[in-house]
Structure formats: structure tokens, C-alpha cells
Amino acid sequence: MNKHQLERIVIKWLNQNFGNLTPKTTEKYPKSVFYVNSDNGVMMEHNQKNECVYIHYDHIWSKIESLFHLNYGDAESIMKVWVEEAYKLEGVTPKAEHLTILLLVEEAYKLEGVTPETPPIHL
């Protein structure tokens, strides 16, 4: 299987499992669009200020790394194609993130706009 075939398989899986996320905005975070699942759980955040898309590590990113045996760089490349195709987010940089932690830090400490770095976990 070549790289393009693998990319298409991963994107198909992403679309089947996360292709129906609903974009939501809040007054509290006017520069962000949150993409939530049917349970209102945040799966992605498009930060329009820095043009990053923070993708939930535990629910999405780590799953494609482990299911398809991808390293962080390959997962990032595929995520970029996926968010461009599925959500029309052109020119963004995908990053793995524990989104719950990000929102709790901002809420608890009023550190809006601060993004705690979550290093990728590689086995």
C-alpha cells in the first residue's frame, strides 16, 4: 500500500467516525470555532487567531496513530488534508491537543489565549 492509499483509508475512517462534527461558537471564545460531537463533546478547535486546528488527542489523534501505525508527522499531514476536505479549513496547522485541559486551564486561571503544549506520545 502506498502513502496516498493509506491517506485515503485514514480519511475514510475519519469521515465515518468524525465527519459529522457540528461547528459551534461562543461569546467567551470569539476567535475559536469548536467542533462538537452529538454529545456536545469538543473534538476539535479551530483557533482563527493562530490558524491552528487543535484535534482531540485521546478521541481522534491517538486513534489514527495506533490503528494505522502512523508517526506524529504522518498523522499531522493526513489531518491537514482531512480538515481541509471535510471542514473546508484551508491553510491551517493541525495539532494534537488534550482539549479538555485547554478549556479547563482557561476557565480556572483566566488565561485566555494561552495554549499549553502537549507533547505527542510515541511508543
Features:
123 residues, alpha+beta, 4 helices, 5 strands, disordered C terminus
Overview of this structure, please?
The chain has helices spanning 3-18, 57-68, 72-87, 99-109; strands at 22-24, 32-36, 42-47, 52-56, 93-97. The chain has 123 residues and is α+β, with helices and mostly antiparallel strands. It has a domain at 1-10 and 51-112. Strands 1-2-3-4-5 form a 5-stranded mixed β-sheet. A hairpin with a 5-residue loop joins strand 2 (32-36) and strand 3 (42-47). Helix 1 (3-18) crosses helix 3 (72-87). The two termini are 23 Å apart.
Which strand-content bin applies to the residues?
15-25%
Low-pLDDT parts are 108-112, 114-123
Q: In whole angstroms, how far apart are the ends?
A: 23 Å
- Given the helix and strand composition, which structural class is it? alpha+beta
SSE string: HEEEEHHEH
Q: Any chance you could write out the topology, listing elements then pairs?
A:
Layout: H1 3-18, E1 22-24, E2 32-36, E3 42-47, E4 52-56, H2 57-68, H3 72-87, E5 93-97, H4 99-109
Parallel strand pairs: 4-5
Antiparallel strand pairs: 1-2, 2-3, 3-4
Helix pairs in contact: 1-3
